[in-house]
Structures are given as structure tokens and as C-alpha cells.
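Running this now, will post back.
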Amino acid sequence: MSRIYALIPAAGMGKRMGAGSNKQYLLLDGMPILARTVAAFEAAPFIDGIYLVSPEQEIPFCRSEVVDHYGFSKVRAIVPGGAERQHSVCNGLDAMADAADDDLVLIHDGVRPFVSQEMLEAAADAAREHGASVVAVPVKDTVKVVKGGVISETPPREELWLAQTPQAFRYGLIRDAHARAKAEGYLGTDDASLVEHQGGEVRIVTGDYRNIKITTPEDLVLAEAFLKGKG
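Update: finished.
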């Protein structure tokens, strides 16, 4: 049976949040957002190990205030990030020295704390069967393609999905996709786009509209409301 690893990039600077510290360390009901995210993977019995990616200068803080403070025993390494998220993920994949090609890796944003175990398991199952999967939700609004301030196209809404994370892959597939993108100088919009760029097929797994990425002050307000709604 293949092992399942989590790779959680948390190396962003969080400029849109406008806070004094990086967004992943902002408190959500008294607990850092990143700690809530890691806790979801720590609690999943099918997750064998967790790799975090952090700005290099923040690794000691991440270790003491997140990993050690909350006793996360599955965290195997905290890896220095890169200039872009793609580079950070690539660093994390390179650090997974004992991962086999058929093992699975779930790549998940450090500031998406509301991911469920059911979502993690569904993404892993789809990646095990098909090689790659992305958690996503259908768009609710009509989307317009705009060029020069003028609408040029209205794509059919039923064909449009909002990509979330986790994005799950066989380790060998996503490692090779990152290596080829690096060699070509290709910068994708997410990890799945690197597989797509190489002609690979990525399956959709239906996610949850509450699986938000906390990037703005408004997102933080919404996240607090979600927590209060749980009781």
C-alpha cells in the first residue's frame, strides 16, 4: 500500500492581509492559522508524514510556535521556501527523500484550515487511481473574459470550477512535472497546471465552499464566522 504524505507550503508573505506578521501565523480563535491546517492532517490516520515549507528565517519560529507548541508528531521536516510558491513546493518535494514514485503527496495551502478528512481521503483516492486530482467547487457566478475593459467571452458556467487544495498526486508524477517545469522555466498557476502542461490528466474532486484560503482581512472575518457556526 502506498504511503500518503502532506506537503504544506506556508512561505508566502501575505501582503494582501496587511498585517504585521505573515498570514499563516495570525490567530484564528486563539490558534495560528497554520497550526489549524496542520492539525487537520495530524488527525487524519491515513497521513504518514507532513512536510512544511517556510521562509528560511522563520523556520525556528515555525518549529517552536507551531510544531513543538501543539505537539505535531507527524511533521518530518520544515523546508526553506523559494522565491515563488512553485519553487517552495519543489523544495518540499526534493526534501521527501524516502518517498517512492507510487506514494501519494497531498499539496495543501497552509492558510486553508477548514479542509476535512473526507476531502483529504477523496483526493488521495482519486490520485491513487488516476495519478492526479484537484479539489474544486463549481463557480456560482457568471464569469466574463475581459480584454481591454471589454467583455470578449462568456464561458459556459457549467464548465467552470474554482480550484482549491489539496491537490493530490503520485509522488513520481508531480516530482517529474516540477523538475521539467524548472528546466523549461515554466511557471504555472498551481501544481496541477504543471501536470497539465506536460499533457497529463487531472481529475476533479468536489470540494466545499467553506474550504477557503485566508488571504485578506475579509477572509479572516469569514473564517471566524465559520468557527462560531460550529458551535
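The CA atoms of residues 124 and 166 lie 9 Å apart. More later if anyone needs it.
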